[in-house]
């Protein structure tokens, strides 16, 4: 009985192994020609490069804006004037130490040239000791955490 079972299982296993096809075919061989050199040799036409023409004038503008919000303590602004290659302007802001920082600048072909000044004297408030707030927690009916 053992011999018959062993032979039967061997025949079934051999038949089953022979019936399963290879699910993945072998990959195709890599091409042997150099596509880059071939494309350079066969290229015989080059389209002309047409650069767009843009009408332009020397820049000329002026702008100014400012924020002065006493409630939140915001105080800053900016103004600028440009005429051709020369730009002049200034901006300012109130610093956290209560000083006013002003920057006056000009921009020319050599770059950005700022002059920075400060008005007022730095004032630092005395720090207050941390006072934690305590809350008494009373769980209500139906609360999961008792």
From TrEMBL:
The protein's matches in InterPro entries, at most eight in alphabetical order, are given as: Insect_cuticle, Insect_Cuticle_Struc_Prot
Keyword Signal belongs to the record: yes
Q: How is this protein named in the record? A: Cuticle protein
Gene source species: Scylla paramamosain (Mud crab)
Q: Does the keyword Signal apply?
A: yes
Top-rank taxon, per record: Eukaryota
GO cellular component terms, semicolon-separated? extracellular matrix; extracellular space
Q: Name one GO molecular function term.
A: structural constituent of cuticle
State the signal peptide span: 1-19
**Keywords, A to Z?**
Cuticle, Signal
């Amino acid at each position: 009985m053992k011999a018959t079972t062993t032979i039967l299982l061997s025949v079934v296993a051999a038949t089953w192994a022979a019936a399963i096809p290879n699910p993945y075919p072998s990959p195709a061989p890599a091409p042997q020609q150099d596509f880059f050199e071939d494309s350079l040799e066969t290229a015989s036409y080059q389209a002309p490069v047409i650069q767009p023409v843009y009408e332009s004038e020397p820049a000329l503008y002026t702008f100014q804006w400012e924020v002065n919000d006493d409630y939140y303590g915001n105080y800053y602004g900016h103004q600028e004037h440009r005429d051709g290659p020369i730009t002049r302007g200034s901006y300012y802001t109130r610093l956290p130490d209560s000083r006013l920082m002003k920057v006056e600048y000009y921009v020319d072909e050599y770059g950005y040239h700022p002059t920075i000044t400060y008005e007022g004297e730095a004032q630092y408030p005395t720090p207050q000791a941390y006072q934690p707030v305590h809350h008494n927690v009373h769980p209500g009916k139906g609360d999961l955490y008792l």
